[in-house]
């Protein structure tokens, strides 16, 4: 609708992120050489577009911020709508009864039906009339296609927030923040936070208290440690939790038991906790989804011969892993899922940096040993 109104005066370029819409997802090979901003920058270069105003919602806005930091010669100004600047936390959400029932049903059946998407989109949009029947059908059709291994591999994400803070400080362009402050995930406190992080930009703000952002999938980042020590909160040290943490870090003293060997290198967080389960907001019970696509066949039966389906190793508290274990997405659910399985130690020659940090914060000990000293 917006593009239709603007295209008479402006050239509009809309980007379909790889893995969403009609695009195939990024391959393992491409993720070794590409970062998210490579794709839109290459597209604009191909079209010989030298200057743009970048408008983005949610993770689309994150992409715009990173592009403005990387290519200030290309990005003239930013329009950001309900864009995260801290890792997004979902544990505080007060879900509607309809969405709770739909999520329970999806958890039991492994399938998100049309009613699930109607409830999901209605909840996050706030006003049901904003989400057309066609949009609901498109969400349903998109998420019932064959799962993409690297669905969010080239989406711009906040991660643990450390690098994002550095990149946001590099932005020195005019920025218009358009904010629906009724957004349950990114309320007015998130608007204030992004204004602080964009400390060198020229900020203008428009707040719309009656609006939420359009529902989307760009809220799958893991929460980070805030100033008062709670990994669930994003409000910073000046505010306290409104409810107790559901899954505080479990203290580690000693561990004894069998060790399950998973020696495959580059075992990423999407293998540990597949992206399609990110809509499950409760931390308890995530163990049943750990390594789901390795443990279970498409018909739900257990994969014979997989180490965690072997009774002696089903409850193993130790994993001996290949190099770069926990690489990829920053999702903290991967660690929560391991805890749910009873894992307390992972031994590897190297870990994904954010995964390693999430382990230590949640009571799993990641032990780094030279490859030739790993237990055999």
From TrEMBL:
Pathway the protein acts in: Amino-acid biosynthesis; L-leucine biosynthesis; L-leucine from 3-methyl-2-oxobutanoate: step 2/4
Put simply, this protein is called 3-isopropylmalate dehydratase
Q: Which organism is it from?
A: Novosphingobium subterraneum
State its role.
Catalyzes the isomerization between 2-isopropylmalate and 3-isopropylmalate, via the formation of 2-isopropylmaleate.
Return one Gene Ontology term, BP aspect: L-leucine biosynthetic process
Is Disulfide bond one of the keywords? no
The chemistry this enzyme catalyses reads: (2R,3S)-3-isopropylmalate = (2S)-2-isopropylmalate
Q: Which residues form the AB hydrolase-1 domain?
A: 7-201
- Subunit notes for this chain? Heterodimer of LeuC and LeuD.
- EC assignment: the record states 4.2.1.33
Picking any one GO molecular function of the record gives: 3-isopropylmalate dehydratase activity
């Amino acid at each position: 609708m917006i593009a239709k109104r603007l295209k008479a005066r402006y050239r509009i370029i809309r980007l379909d992120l790889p893995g969403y819409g009609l695009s195939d997802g990024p391959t393992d090979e491409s993720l070794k050489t590409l970062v998210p901003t490579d794709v839109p920058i290459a597209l604009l270069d191909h079209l010989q577009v030298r200057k743009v105003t970048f408008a983005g919602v949610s993770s689309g806005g994150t992409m715009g911020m990173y592009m403005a930091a990387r290519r200030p010669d290309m990005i003239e100004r930013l329009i950001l709508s309900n864009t995260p600047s801290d890792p997004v936390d979902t544990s505080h959400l007060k879900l509607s009864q309809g969405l709770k029932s739909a999520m329970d049903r999806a958890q039991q059946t492994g399938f998100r039906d049309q009613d699930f998407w109607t409830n999901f989109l209605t909840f996050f949009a706030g006003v049901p009339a904003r989400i057309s029947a066609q949009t609901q059908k498109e969400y349903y059709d998109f998420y019932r296609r064959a799962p993409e291994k690297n669905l969010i591999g080239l989406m711009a994400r906040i991660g643990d927030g450390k690098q994002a803070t550095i990149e946001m400080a590099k932005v020195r362009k005019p920025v218009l923040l358009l904010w629906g402050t009724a957004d349950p995930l990114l309320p007015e406190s998130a608007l204030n936070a992004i204004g602080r992080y964009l400390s060198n930009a020229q900020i203008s703000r428009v707040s719309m208290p009656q609006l939420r952002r359009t529902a989307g999938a760009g809220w799958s980042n893991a929460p980070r440690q805030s100033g008062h020590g709670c990994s669930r909160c994003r409000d910073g040290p000046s505010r306290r939790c409104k409810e107790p943490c559901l899954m505080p870090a479990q203290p580690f003293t000693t561990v004894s038991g069998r060790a399950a060997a998973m020696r495959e290198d580059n075992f990423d967080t999407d293998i540990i906790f597949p992206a399609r389960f990110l809509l499950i907001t409760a931390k308890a019970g995530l163990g049943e989804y750990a390594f789901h696509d390795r443990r279970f066949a498409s018909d739900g039966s257990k994969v014979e011969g997989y180490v965690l389906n072997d009774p002696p190793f089903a409850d193993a508290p130790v994993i001996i892993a290949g190099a770069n274990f926990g690489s990829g997405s920053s999702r903290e659910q991967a660690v929560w899922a391991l805890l749910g399985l009873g894992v307390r130690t992972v031994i590897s020659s190297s870990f994904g940096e954010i995964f390693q940090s999430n382990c230590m914060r949640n009571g799993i000990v990641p032990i780094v040993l030279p490859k030739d000293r790993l237990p055999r």
